[in-house]
Amino acid sequence: MTRAIPLRKRLLVRLLITSVLIAICSVAATAWLAVETTTRAIQEEQGQVLTEDMDILRQLSGYAATHRDWSGVGKTVRALSDRTGRRIALTAPDRTPIVDSETRDTALPPRAAAAVDPLHTDTFTEPGAQRTGIDPRAVGPFRLPGAERERVRQLAEKRRACFAGNGVETDITQLPSGRSVLIDEEGTVDGGQVPTPCADGVLNTPTATEEKALAELNTYAGDCLERVGGKFPSLFAATVDLTDGAMPMRYPGLKAHSGIDTTREQDKEAQECVDRARRQQLEPYVAPAAELFLGGGDSTVPHFDMSAANKAKVTGVAGLVLALTVAVTVLVATRLVRPLRALTHAARQPPEQHVRVPVTTQDEMGILAVAFNDLAERRERMEAQRKAMVADIAHELRTPLTNIRGWLEVTRDGVVDPNPELLASLHDEAVVLQRVIDDLQDLAAADAGTLRLHREPVRADELLEQVVAAHRVAAEAAGVRLHTAVDGSKGSTGPDGSDGANGRDGTPWLDADPVRMRQALGNLVSNAIRHTPAEGTITLSSRRQDDEVVFEVADTGSGIAPEDLPSVFERFWRAEKSRSRRTGGSGLGLSIVRQLVTAHGGTVTVTSEPGTGSVFTLRLPDTC
To answer: Structure pTM?
Structure first.
């Protein structure tokens, strides 16, 4: 009884589990990749939007730092909106509209994106505002008129020439106030260390405009600085750093000139006084603070919403994919398993039935079914051959044994005297038995791969002469002539001579077992003698052809019918079924020939025409 296959080991279950796992991994990988790609795209887009926001804020802050009001900002706002594709709106702190790039009457976003105030800006919008929070482009009364700008530029040209003469390369750049300063390759003002011949202080001397603005600044900061200075109020005064782009936003103090040290707290409070005075001084020169609104309408900031609805969609799609995967897997697996079950059922049938399976497909399963049917057919044929072989062996052994037993019984009963003729007859029967047994033993050894060959260099002409000598008596008794024909001269000296196996003019040599080769050729000659009538001829020839040594045994006998040619090398096969076992042989000779030649790495073939004769050809590798 066939044991049932456990559920977990069934092919259908395995295919189903594999497909589900693949589908789960595919869905998970696709979801992960989609989330990662979407997140990265959103981050990149948000980064781009943030950069655009910072640029918009920087430009509007610059406009406010250089204009007293917002009356002309509309053109700038529209240009920025056209370039970025975003809505830009400015309002007063109380949301009174100043300018809006959106022409439709749409509501503003709930919150402002930023405050535009050049006197209280952040440290990232514009470089130079890191310390005071004042936009460096807001210079107010420190802006130089044209004449002073030209004079300062000429002083800068002179100083650059002096720097160049002392091996320091610099460039001239202009600050928002209009003052020209020197910058080296590293961006250091005045080239870092000023050469002594160039340290005249002329370039950094405040102009009349700067002196006036500085005096005004000290007026605004005077009361505050007095409160900070206490006993030494003269130590504190707002001074200008003409080389700073945020001029005059630093407070250097005067302690280096007075010899009196101030505390760090005093320096900090004095700087705060100057910063407040600076904002008070610049307030009339800059636009009032405004609120900046970005986006709104159709321009919204992208976001990734994994809401409950989205999660339900993802789950639904994943479930649908899994369901389709299971359905397709079941369908495909069923089609795969059905022919396998048919093959299994056929293989479990009794051997004598030789069941075939239908071939329904042209794929691998169809090929497997065809192979199974071929195997069943070969098995059936081999079984028939086996039965026939057993019957033939029994018949081959029964005939001589029956003769021997009969003569021994009549001799034992005294009916016949044991004369020499009787003993010779018994000896012949024993020889027949021995020949059949030896042939069967040779075939069994060849089938098992245990047939041993004792190879040595063999001359083709000598091998043929030995075979002819062994069968000359039988041939003469049958009235058949034996001939040999070997390529090359009789003077061949062997593998080590000039005309040996490697010489194209010499007799062919081969590396073979001479005893087994005489047996194979002898079987062919014996078979030819039995099928060749009197006055017939049997020719044994040898030649070298390409990389092979070719032997041929040709006779002028009765020949073989074309339909019988494929069977001549089968065991116990005879062309004439009625031929006597004694005169017709055991039917194993040609099978032994094929096995011996195959063991030498060669092939044997036959060609024949009925009434004309047959030619058996042996091809052996020329390895000598």
So the answer is: 0.44
